[in-house]
């Protein structure tokens, strides 16, 4: 089953294996490229084992507590380090409160992306328990722990409960889950927690998928921070005046916007139009100055250069906030209050909600991206294809009509001032048309 799941990090609960488990881990993993840390069973507490693929990850034990075990994992082919904590919380409420303190202490030992997983032996809401009616103290304490630790409790796909008891599942609850830190959420645009099929245990396995899947071609969208770039407005004006098209005014406008889009696509690949390139360039220059300072004192011009680079980095940070606010569509939150991380999380959440990784058509589940696209296109083609040729006939002779004054007012052409006021009333971050240009442009 581990091979079918294709996971390179696994956390096992209640293994009920004592002694040296090295050979058992390799046998379960299916190869010798497995390393692990464990929390041994004690009394009513089940064992927790975290296993990872050694060819991809460099792992190290961080802490072992009474109810949890934590390890650090560093990707060998990327600059990415994170911590994973496996939890087996007791069934007793008072002892479970000790678990929350233990996890808080473990978090104090490291920083950065963090994932908690395991059996928490409680739920957050009555809806996570079959026939649940009211919120109890255990639920409140669990929710308080998640909020105090600034963790994210992501949605569960593929099922409502993770633990079921009895042949008819008369008792069921969501006792198991993944909890993610904000740093983890920021690193991945696509995150999904799913319930897998259970075989022997009364607990269902959970799968956490992170990364990019079902990649699609990105479409053009005007970045509002470009307007704050020095010389940008003059550059756009020069491009616009260089385009020569003849015809109706609406055609000329459309043709010029299309030509300008091509210029902007080329420009955003340069350092002036790309925030990632700008940030990397500034950080490299600052690192070079730091290295020089290790060997000698900086000269006046170098000190001035470092100050200028620091100010430039602040400008880049402001532009990043503008960019992420635009992507997040959180227009109610004021720009300029250093809300970049919130905008980032909101944009990622929108992307996850809008993604379709599976589709059921006529009882058949489809997972291939191309097949999903094909079925969606065919569905809307059928929906908007007219099959009836008949049209109802209406006799308007006996219907009330507007008088001549109101009719002339409704049919009067729009004035330039009215059009300008309507445009200015639109949200600047919105791009109402398919061309990708925002209203502020």
Strand content: 15-25%
Number of helices: 13
Biggest sheet strand line-up: 4-5-6-7-12-8
Helix content: 25-40%
Low-confidence stretches: none
* Structure classification: alpha+beta
CATH topology of the largest domain: Deoxyribonuclease I, Chain A
Multimer state: single chain
Shape: extended
Query: What would you give as the CATH superfamily of the largest domain?
Result: Endonuclease/exonuclease/phosphatase
The CATH level-2 architecture of the largest domain is identified as 4-Layer Sandwich
Number of E-state strands: 16
GO biological process, one term: DNA repair
InterPro entries: AP_endonuclease_F1_BS, Endo/exonu/phosph_ase_sf, Endo/exonuclease/phosphatase
Organism: Solanum verrucosum
Domain Endonuclease/exonuclease/phosphatase: 2-203
Structure report:
It contains 13 helices and 16 strands. It is an alpha+beta fold and 441 residues long. The chain folds into two domains: 210 residues, Deoxyribonuclease I, Chain A (4-Layer Sandwich); 117 residues, no CATH class. Strands 4-5-6-7-12-8 form a six-stranded mixed beta sheet. A three-stranded antiparallel beta sheet has the order 1-3-2, covered by helices on one side. It has a three-stranded mixed beta sheet with strand order 9-13-14. Pfam families: Exo_endo_phos (PF03372). InterPro entries: AP_endonuclease_F1_BS (IPR020847), Endo/exonu/phosph_ase_sf (IPR036691), Endo/exonuclease/phosphatase (IPR005135). One of its GO terms (molecular function) is DNA binding. This is Endonuclease/exonuclease/phosphatase domain-containing protein.
């Amino acid at each position: 089953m581990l091979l079918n799941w294709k996971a390179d990090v696994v956390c096992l609960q209640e293994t009920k294996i004592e002694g040296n488990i090295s050979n058992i881990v390799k046998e379960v993993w299916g190869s010798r490229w497995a390393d692990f840390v464990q929390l041994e069973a004690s009394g009513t507490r089940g064992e927790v084992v975290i296993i990872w693929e050694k060819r991809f990850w460099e792992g190290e034990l961080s802490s072992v507590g009474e109810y949890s075990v934590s390890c650090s994992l560093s990707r060998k082919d990327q600059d990415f380090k994170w911590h994973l904590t496996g939890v087996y919380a007791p069934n007793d409420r008072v002892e479970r409160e000790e678990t929350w303190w233990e996890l808080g202490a473990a978090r104090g030992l490291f920083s950065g992306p963090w994932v908690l997983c395991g059996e928490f032996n409680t739920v957050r809401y009555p809806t996570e328990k079959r026939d649940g009616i009211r919120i109890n103290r255990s639920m409140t304490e669990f929710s308080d722990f998640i909020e105090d630790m600034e963790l994210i409790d992501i949605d569960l796909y593929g099922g409502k409960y993770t633990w079921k008891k009895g042949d008819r599942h008369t008792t069921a609850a969501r006792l198991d889950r993944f909890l993610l830190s904000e740093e983890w959420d920021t690193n991945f645009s696509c995150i999904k927690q799913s319930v897998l099929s259970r075989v022997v245990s009364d607990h269902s396995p959970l799968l956490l998928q992170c990364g990019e899947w079902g990649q699609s071609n990105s479409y053009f969208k005007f970045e509002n921070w470009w307007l704050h770039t020095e010389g940008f407005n003059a550059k756009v004006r020069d491009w616009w005046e260089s385009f020569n098209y003849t015809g109706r005014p609406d055609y000329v406008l459309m043709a010029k916007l299309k030509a300008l889009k091509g210029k902007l696509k080329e420009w955003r690949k340069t350092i002036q139009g790309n925030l990632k390139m700008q940030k990397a360039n500034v950080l490299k220059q600052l690192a070079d100055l730091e290295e020089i300072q290790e060997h000698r004192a900086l000269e006046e011009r170098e000190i001035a250069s470092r100050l200028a680079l620091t100010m430039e980095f602040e400008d880049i940070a402001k532009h990043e906030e503008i960019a992420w606010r635009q992507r997040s569509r959180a227009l109610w939150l004021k720009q300029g209050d250093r809300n970049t991380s919130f905008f980032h999380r909101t944009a990622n959440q929108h992307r996850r909600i809008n993604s379709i990784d599976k589709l059921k058509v006529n009882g058949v589940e489809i997972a291939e991206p191309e097949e999903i696209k094909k079925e969606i296109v065919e569905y809307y083609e059928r929906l908007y294809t007219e099959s009836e040729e008949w049209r109802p006939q209406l006799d308007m002779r006996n219907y009330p009509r507007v008088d001549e004054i109101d009719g002339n007012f409704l049919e009067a052409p729009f004035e330039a001032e009215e059009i300008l006021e309507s445009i200015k009333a639109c949200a600047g971050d919105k791009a109402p048309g398919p061309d990708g240009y925002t209203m502020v442009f």
